[in-house]
Design a protein that fits this description.
- The protein has about 90 residues and is mostly helical.
- Helix content is about 80%, strand content about 0%.
- It is built from 5 helices and no strands.
Length: about 90
Amino acid sequence: MPDFYAILSLYRMRAEADVTGALVAERADVSSDALDQVSRTFLTVRERDGWKELSQEARAARLRLGYQRFRRWEATNPDIAALLRRKARAAALG
């Protein structure tokens, strides 16, 4: 099951960057840690085991895998993703 709190946090960071007029690169920088956290939640327990002992390249490869799963989740659950984005945008607007 997806970590909706992590996804909402990611969407909120992106929405806040959009509201402040951040450039695309700035938006990516601001939300990169949150995106990594979301990507990790889409990994299996086995894929997360020994995370700290993995090389940087192995961690990056696993994060890419988690990110791909997250994007597939967004594509297969557009209504939930849209709801979370709306909530994030409303929170960013105050």
